[in-house]
Amino acid sequence: HSLSTSAESPTSNMQSVLLLLSFLLLSHGGASGASDVVVDGNGDEVKAGQLYYVWPPLIGNDGLFLGSQKESCPLYVVSAIASTHNPDPLAFFPENSSVHSQDPVREGDTLFIKFSIPTACPQSSVWNYDVETSFVGTGGTTAPASGPNYSRFAIFKSEVPHPPHNTTYYFKSCPCGVGVESPTCRMGCLTSLGLNNFNGHFVLSGSGNNGNDWVFVKAQKEGAMGSKIRPVASRAKA
């Protein structure tokens, strides 16, 4: 009986090793299932902290820039049609990345969005979703929040074709962290954001239904910031 047990041990050990290897492979495969990386108009990875312009895929429309209602604060994220405005440069800061990292931005993971231009308003240039008006404005915060933080947004790939662009994206307001180790709340993302015609301005809004999809274009280091940028108030007159 003891000889029989000794003869079966190598087979039993081999089965145990194979089971362990299978478990490790399955575990590794599950851990690597991260969301897809967001790409710009050239197909390059969108990086945290890098400046980008946000353009619509349709020719004739303007990109996103900061504008005001009646030249007063706070400022809003706006666009225009067939105007002379250029989009303002902005940067994405994924919530799961360190402050100075250049990690790739991933689809569906929460992030903070900040315009990189000087303004005369006291509010920060970080995006913030106003739940009362559904408008996206400024005055957001990147500080840790124990509950919903309406400065959190996420980028999702559009399924609508916009040739010649291979990939376009849309924004959602996501008050609770997604893609982070310890989410502080469980509220799902809100509606996708589009452009809402309000008093002659096209404001990025949760109730908008135009211009949902966007293309990201990397800003050149020269001219992305500086004295050539006109005051926001003069650019946002109705």
From TrEMBL:
Secretion signal span: 1-33
Gene3D superfamilies tied to this protein: 2.80.10.50
A Pfam family reported for this protein in Swiss-Prot or TrEMBL: Kunitz_legume
InterPro entries xref list: Kunitz_inhibitor_STI-like_sf, Prot_inh_Kunz-lg
PANTHER family: KUNITZ TRYPSIN INHIBITOR 2, KUNITZ TRYPSIN INHIBITOR 5
Recorded name of the encoding gene: ITC_1
SUPFAM superfamilies: STI-like (SSF50386)
A GO molecular-function annotation: endopeptidase inhibitor activity
Protein name: Trypsin/chymotrypsin inhibitor
Organism of provenance: Anthurium amnicola
Parts forming coiled coils: none
Alphabetical UniProt keywords: Signal
Superkingdom of the organism of origin: Eukaryota
